[in-house]
Write a structure and sequence with these properties.
alpha+beta, 2-enoyl-CoA Hydratase, Chain A, domain 1, seven-stranded antiparallel sheet, six-stranded mixed sheet, 29% helix, globular
């Protein structure tokens, strides 16, 4: 009896300490999940082969099955990594996989994150913030993590990061920090690739030039997020307006996300634009803005465009028949699961276009009577994507407007976005995001798969970063 009890205790201890990333899925389970995912993307995603070759995608899906067959199965971590790598081939920022619940929960009980926030500036990985006990300072340069060159690690995780089109330059910010990936990709994917221990050795060079090696404790996801307490998550908190002098004002908007704590955008915009006149200059700072909801950028454009405009000339879906996959899908817009044919116009290629009066994006919008007609300077960065790049694509047609900063992410021609379907894979619990709408922005010209190239390119330097200076804003003020 004592021997049996000892065996039970031992077995329970092993099961409790096993990391959920090691959960084993047999071949049949992997094949079922992969076939479901592949079929759903082919059937629903309106931009599935927009930038990718179908044969390449077919081969990538089949390769996952081949690996699982060879090894008689696959761990949950490896399946998630393989699916993420395959989805990144689609080159759509809204096409990605979410961690299954077991792995999400582990991020707050098993520390896997580096105790720092960092930015890559002039090719160097610079500490932006760190835990109080680490001793790391802003501007310290991270050289190695557990004796591995930091740049080699960064390159290893880039293949898992989706971006719109061919805007790979925008991946570096997502490697450093991304709420979409439950932390920057270096930590998010690294926790599955390298199975990090609770302690991490980091080699770094201080601002004074001294090279140090030190062992740090890794931190949980909540602790990592606490390193950036000023991060704005909702549009209602993201709008900041201030006067530089009597002739120049800065309007900074860090996100258009307006669904968690919604507000009518005009309540924020109207008093600001009533204070401006056309003899003044407005600096619109969107450098932290990756997009979000549709209404905040569309209403902002109504205060900036001199004539009526529309965001998109067409918005399409690939199919109206979701029945083969409906039981595995969820979304916040329930009507999208049962689309009405009366809202669409069939296209020769088998897709369907929304009728012009259905979506705000395709309707003509009149300028607000408090619109600003003066000089507009728009600050851009590689953080811009999705909705913020859509807004920028409209502003390219505005007179007396200059773009200053970095080339953006996103797609000037229009992203695949809008309503997102969440496909729950039954065996792994992995959720795959499938955007339902393909936007065709009302732009006269664009580079395939590219974002906005500013009229005046300015980037952050290492010295400016350490001194907390802002050379992009300075360039706008001198312009």
């Amino acid at each position: 009896m004592k021997i049996l009890l000892l065996l039970i205790i031992t077995t329970t201890t092993i099961a409790a300490t096993e990391h959920p990333r090691e959960q084993w899925l047999d071949v049949a389970a992997v094949v079922e999940d992969i076939k479901l995912a592949q079929g759903a993307y082919e059937h629903i995603h309106p931009g599935y082969t927009r930038y990718a070759n179908k044969n390449s995608l077919d081969n990538a899906w089949q390769n996952i099955i081949n690996v699982a067959t060879k090894h008689n199965g696959m761990t949950l971590a490896d399946l998630y990594l393989n699916i993420s790598e395959t989805l990144a081939l689609v080159r759509c920022d809204h096409t990605k996989a979410e961690l299954p619940k077991a792995l999400r929960d582990a991020r707050n009980s098993i520390p896997v994150y580096l105790p720092v926030l960092w930015h890559q500036v002039e090719g160097q990985v610079l500490v932006a913030a760190a835990t109080e006990t680490s001793g790391l300072k802003r501007g310290d340069v991270i050289l190695k993590v557990d004796d591995k060159d930091i740049h080699e690690l960064i390159e290893q995780v880039k293949k898992y990061i989706p971006v719109d089109g061919f805007t790979d330059h925008s991946k570096i910010n997502l490697v450093a920090a991304s709420a979409e990936h439950q932390g920057g990709a270096l930590d998010h994917f690294g926790a599955l690739l390298w199975q990090p221990k609770a302690q991490v050795k980091m080699t770094y060079r201080t601002v004074n030039g001294t090279v140090n090696e030190k062992v740090f404790s890794r931190i949980t996801y909540d602790q990592w997020r606490a390193l950036n307490p000023s991060r704005v998550r909702n549009f209602i908190d993201a709008v900041d307006f201030k006067w530089i002098n009597t002739d120049t004002a800065v309007l900074k908007i860090d996100t258009f996300v307006n669904y968690r704590n919604p507000i009518n955008p005009d309540k924020l915009y109207k008093p600001l634009f009533k204070a401006l006149n056309e003899t003044q200059t407005l600096i619109l700072d969107l450098r932290e803005n990756g997009g979000g909801s549709n209404e905040p950028p569309l209403r902002l454009l109504a205060y900036l465009m001199p004539e009526k405009f529309r965001q998109a000339k067409d918005v399409q879906v690939k199919t109206l028949n979701l029945n083969p996959f409906k039981k595995h899908l969820r979304t916040w817009e329930k009507s999208a699961l049962n689309p009405k044919a009366s809202r669409f116009i069939p296209n020769p290629n088998g897709s369907y276009s929304f009728k012009p009066n259905i979506l705000d994006d395709t309707q003509w919008i009149k300028p607000n009577r408090n619109r600003f007609n003066g000089k507009l300077l728009v600050l851009t960065s590689n953080n811009n994507s999705s909705g913020s790049t859509n807004l920028l694509s409209v502003l390219k047609n505005r007179p007396n407007t200059t773009f200053i900063g970095e080339p953006t992410g996103g797609s000037v021609e229009g992203p695949t976005a809008g309503v997102i379907f969440f496909l729950k894979l039954p065996n792994s619990g992995i959720t795959a995001r499938i955007p339902a709408f393909r936007y065709y922005n009302d732009v006269s010209e664009f580079q395939l798969g590219k974002g906005i190239t500013p009229d005046l390119e300015v980037s952050l330097s290492k010295d400016a970063f350490i001194a907390a200076q802002d050379p992009i804003l300075d360039a706008a003020l001198k312009f």
